[in-house]
Amino acid sequence: MNKGLHSVREKSLVFIGFMGVGKTTVAQLVAKKLYRDFIDIDQEIEKEFGMPTTEIFKKIGEAAFREKEKEYVLHYCKQPLKVISLGGGAFMQEDIRNACLDHSIVFYLDISWDSWKERLHMLVDSRPVLQNRSIDDIETLFNERKTLYEDHNSKLVTDNFNEEEVADYIIDSVKLAWDLYS
Ligand code: S3P
Question: What are the pocket residues of ligand 1 if the criterion is a CB atom closer than 6 Å to any ligand atom?
Fold first, then answer.
């Protein structure tokens, strides 16, 4: 557990999980409650390109987005005392998975397919990866991604909890890790 440059108490917390599971909101709450900086990797990429993700995918291409995603994640996950929300596709890249698992504490926010599909209509406009795909294709993607997210330090199935409850659970679990491993 204590790999990387920083002590367990200082390690950054990284949130992974499928699009729309609530990573950004939960990470923001956790950052606030722990007095840490919050970093949203998608927002960093959007700031750099000066356009929303859908436009980046259309005008510059997914490959350029993924390259920037790797650059930002590899940079921030090695910094101490951050709370970082990753895009749902970031863990497809082995370098990202390895860096996060070596240098930070990785929380997987999981959700059942049945709960997630209720959210699809709110997500599709801002998530290029969901556009022009049938519901069956999206379910396949959902299940493929689940396999990647299995590389984590801690996991919570969020179906029956609101974001505040998830954040509080994460904080309790972080504090337990601090006590156990420092
Ligand atoms: C993506 C997820 C998005 C964003 C981009 C690609 C993906 O982030 O990075 O649209 O491939 O799953 P969220 O998980 O925050 O929606």
Answer: 19-20, 23, 42, 53, 87-89, 127-129
